[in-house]
Design brief:
By secondary structure, this protein is mainly α. The protein contains 3 helices and no strands.
Length: 41
């Protein structure tokens, strides 16, 4: 599942949700939602 892949990639690189959010120019909450499979479409 994509949520698992996102979280695994982040943890392998030892990045926080905050760091990933900054790199992607989104909020930390967005990263959390992605990792938890939450979608607001």
């Amino acid at each position: 599942m994509i949520a698992d892949k996102i979280k695994n990639a982040r943890t392998i690189k030892k990045l926080t949700q905050e760091q990933v959010a900054e790199d992607l120019n989104v909020s930390r909450q967005t990263i959390s939602n992605w990792e938890n499979g939450v979608s607001h479409s």
